[in-house]
Amino acid sequence: MAFRDSDGVEHAVEVEARTLNEAVGLAIDRFRRCEHVEYEPMGLHEFIVESREPSTEHRLTRNMFDAWLGRPGGSPADMALKTRLKQLLAVASRRP
Length: 96
Fold this sequence. Notes:
Elements: E1 2-4, E2 10-12, H1 20-33, E3 46-51, E4 56-61, H2 62-70, H3 76-93
Antiparallel strand pairs: 1-2, 1-3, 3-4
Helix pairs in contact: 1-3
């Protein structure tokens, strides 16, 4: 998982996730906690998600992730994942 900041620096982190959106949520949390990343990815920052098995690459922006996170409904598994990621990101945003 990687994103390029507005200064052109690419930041990458490895996460274990079952879905594309779970990977983005976990990565945002990790980037927030990293002392080498000066700010969290926002809006049009594009995430590059590479899966291991099978090897594929996906790209989506923070806006796309936030839209998915805020969209009501979905399967019970999606709703549980959204709740968990919202809680994780809310706690992370309160960290110093």
